[in-house]
Design a protein that fits this description.
With about 775 residues, the protein is an alpha/beta fold. Bound molecules: beta-D-glucopyranose (BGC). Beta-D-glucopyranose binds next to loops.
Length: about 775
């Protein structure tokens, strides 16, 4: 008996020696060896509880960070903590209140991605996102599900506001700055949605049919730039298919391009919806399934057991996951405060909007206002101001300054009758909606836009108001969000009520000798050509965040000189975009019904632009098309006005070891201080592949230049960055010859140029991704 007890005592003492290793920064291999298959599968599948919102499955994490979109599962036995993943991109999205406490958890609503890109200022973007990253850290979150970088293929993609641009170089560099800013807090980002998720209609199933050239030069290029420059901790694979295969199951995308061609080392997670092919996802390079469910864990276990998934692949993904885990604040036990400095961040949000708002028109120096005290403020959007979009891109902010408050804060007096008119309409409409919700119709849906429709203002009233006020400001508002694309009619195009409002206000105020300013509080491009001449000035703040209306007022008063420029083209007509031939611009049976979340729709007949989308325009997206086809636009890519003027001089281009170094001097030739965003385009030598007239290769922004002051900006462009993709040869090519380097204020305004002579042809082979698939028949501009 004594002997047996001694034996057990000895065994107990030995247990610590046999104990499983706990994860440290240096024992990943050891931990992998110690993990069971069940534990490994668990680590590869997210652990969110699925919450159902109006038939839509969206992840809501359990645990202390309420409202985070998802989490990874903890495995305590080997010291793996749970980590939290939350949206993005215009700030952190978590629940602002929690049961059992009066403490609040609001986050700062920053300007949307499109406005960030309108700054053309990577330092400014990094400053903004370092504040967002601080909120991520201080609220106990590990990864921000941002930035969203999908290219603006069509002006109508419902999520364009979250994304940056129609150009991959602008988009990729702004994204790199975004990632660096967030990750400077030792928290992660998830660049999304990889790849070709360029529409929301049937987003779960739509098959983007794209050529390898358009992919490599446009739709992957922005990811490539951001990933290679800024190393995001995670990449989010998109819902849609690419050339017949789900992006989240594409080895070409997730392993060959991402890891072989670009050297990516982080993890890949799926977008939020499970597909049947968990095993294929894991095998093709998708490390983490989000939001995750038990079925997916079981699939991985079963596949390893029946030999259809090798343990090597599982271990590869587990290793990626553990390399991620050891970087997280959760693993490093960061003592988060739940108290980020929201006041300081709000100031940064305002500064970013100040520096990014685009002035599209300013006839007779209407702005900044001089001698204007009393303003007639029109448009329901003046009160119902849109700070950001809907869906996962929405941020739960403590407040939104609307245009009325912004102008009042700046010291203007507003015509109270007009304000009352809109406010009482909104109160009435809200009461109606509450009634109908009480009757069981409608209700909360995070994907719907709750924007108030514009209401007409009687002409007689406007005539009176034109006499009583010094100027008019009209706000045109739009909201959008994931799950649906915008429509061509009454969305891209203004509604009749909006047109009448602009026309009537302009006519009456002009008769009274007064000026009219239109503020476009929109998430995406709208038609401007048919009405712009009515307005004396047009400001484009996009959806500028919680402090954005104060920033609009800063521009109106002249406290800030506008320096934002367009990150995309404003066409004359929607149909001028070649992509419009293959875009569901009027599809009404949209969003969640079409394909659903995670649903595998059975459809005998494939619907053009819904089940499949032919990217027939190839590389002819945005200004690449408008420039080359010499097609007139309403406002060109890169356009934006200032209260001062700039001269470009001393264009210099020098061959470097790899490519060239270019510089240009910018002088403020006007009367007020200002900043200028400079664009460097390159026109390639003729011959070889069909190419755009010119392509953006670099950009930069001056500091605030005083009148008469100059600054020389320098840019480096490598031979690789000059190259186009020859899909027949599966390589990048930059032929020898003369490249014209154009220093420009916009795509339509080249100010100076110089020639770079490339002595030798440059080529670079790539992995064999996308071989044998030619995409679709593409248009040619020859
Ligand atoms: C969106 C992602 C988002 C995720 C988590 C998805 O529906 O497409 O952008 O990060 O939900 O909220």
């Amino acid at each position: 008996m004594k002997k047996t007890m001694l034996f057990f005592a000895a065994l107990l003492c030995a247990v610590p020696m046999l104990a499983q290793p706990k994860l440290t920064k240096n024992n990943i291999d050891e931990v992998i060896k110690a993990m069971t298959l069940e534990e490994k599968a668990t680590l590869l599948v997210g652990g969110a509880r699925a919450a159902t919102v109006e038939g839509v499955t969206s992840g809501q994490a359990a645990g202390p960070v309420e409202g985070a979109a998802g989490n990874t599962r903890p495995i305590a036995r080997v010291g793996i903590p749970m980590t939290y993943l939350a949206d993005g991109p215009a700030g952190l999205r978590i629940n602002p209140t929690r049961q059992g406490t009066t403490q609040t958890f609001y986050c700062t609503g920053f300007p949307v991605g499109t406005l960030l890109a309108s700054s053309w200022d990577v330092d400014l973007v990094q400053k903004a996102t370092s504040c967002i990253g601080n909120e991520v850290l201080e609220y106990g979150v590990d990864v921000l599900l941002a930035p969203g970088v999908n290219l603006h293929r069509s002006p109508l993609c419902g999520r364009n506001f979250e994304y940056f641009s129609e150009d991959p170089v602008l988009s990729g560099n702004i994204a790199a700055a975004y990632i660096k800013g967030v990750q400077s807090n030792n928290v992660g980002t998830s660049i999304k949605h990889y790849a070709t998720n360029n529409q929301e209609t049937n987003r779960n199933e739509a098959d983007s049919r794209v050529s390898a050239r358009a992919l490599r030069e446009l739709y992957l290029k922005n990811f490539e730039i951001a990933i290679t420059k800024a190393e995001p901790w995670t990449v989010m694979s998109s819902y849609n298919k690419l050339d017949g295969e789900y992006a989240q199951q594409s080895e070409d995308l997730l392993t060959k391009v991402l890891r072989q061609d670009w050297g990516y080392k982080g993890i890949v997670m799926t977008d939020w919806g499970s597909k049947a092919g968990t095993v294929k996802s894991a095998a093709s390079g998708n490390d983490l399934m989000e939001p995750g469910n038990q079925t997916e864990i079981d699939r991985i276990i079963a596949a390893v057991k029946d030999g259809s998934l090798s343990m090597d692949i599982v271990d590869r993904n587990v290793r990626n996951m553990l390399n991620y885990i050891i970087k997280t604040p959760a693993f490093n036990k960061y003592p988060y405060s739940n108290k980020p400095d929201l006041k300081a961040h709000a100031q940064v949000a305002r500064e970013v909007a100040d520096e990014s708002i685009v002035m599209l028109r300013n006839e007779d120096n209407t702005l900044p206002f001089k001698g204007v005290e009393k303003i007639a403020l029109y448009g329901i959007g003046a009160i119902d101001f849109v700070a950001g979009g809907t869906g996962s891109g929405n941020v739960n902010k403590a407040y939104v300054v609307n245009m009325k408050e912004g102008l009042e804060n700046a010291g203007f007096k507003l015509d109270q009758d007009i304000v009352n008119y809109y406010e009482s309409y909104m109160a009435y409409d809200k009461a109606q909606k509450q009634l109908s919700a009480a009757a069981g119709r409608g209700g909360f849906n995070m994907f719907s836009s709750n924007k108030y429709a514009e209401i007409a203002v009687p002409e007689a009233a406007i005539a009176k108001e034109a006499d009583a006020n010094d100027a008019a400001v009209i706000v045109i508002g739009r909201n959008a969000g994931e799950g649906a694309d915008r429509k061509f009619k009454d969305d891209f195009e203004l509604t009749n009520i909006e047109r009448e409002l602009i026309a009537n206000v302009s006519i009456k105020f002009h008769e009274a000798g007064k000026k009219v300013v239109v503020v476009l509080n929109v998430g995406g491009v709208v038609e401007t050509n048919s009405w712009k001449n009515y307005a004396d000035a047009i400001l484009l703040p996009w959806s500028p965040g919680q402090e954005g209306a104060n920033a609009v007022a800063d521009i109106i008063t002249g406290k800030v000189n506008p320096s934002g420029k367009l990150p995309m083209t404003f066409p004359i007509a929607f149909f001028d975009h070649p992509s419009s031939a293959n875009f569901p611009y009027n599809y009404t049976n949209n969003s969640q019904q079409a394909g659903g979340f995670g649903g595998q729709r059975q459809q005998p007949q494939l619907r053009k632009d819904v089940d499949y989308v032919n990217y027939e325009e190839g590389i002819w997206v945005g200004y690449r098309y408008f420039d080359t086809a010499d097609k007139e636009v309403s406002y060109p890519f890169g356009f934006g006005l200032s209260y001062t003027t700039f001269a470009y001089s001393k264009p210099v281009v020098k061959a470097a070891k790899d490519g060239f170094t270019a510089s240009v001097t910018v002088t403020n030739t006007g009367k007020v201080a200002g900043k200028e965003a400079v664009q460097v385009y390159v026109s390639a030598p003729a011959g070889g592949l069909e190419k755009p007239e010119k392509e953006l290769k670099a950009f930069g922004k001056t500091r605030l230049l005083q009148p008469g002051e100059s600054q020389t900006l320098t840019f480096n462009v490598s031979a690789y960055e000059l190259a186009s993709f020859n899909q027949a040869a599966n390589q990048w090519e930059a032929p020898a010859g003369n490249y014209v380097v154009k220093f420009a204020a916009s795509a339509a305004n080249v100010q100076a140029s110089a020639v770079y002579k490339q002595a030798k042809a440059y080529t670079k082979k790539v992995s064999d991704a996308f071989i044998g698939y030619d995409g679709v028949k593409e248009i040619s501009l020859k």
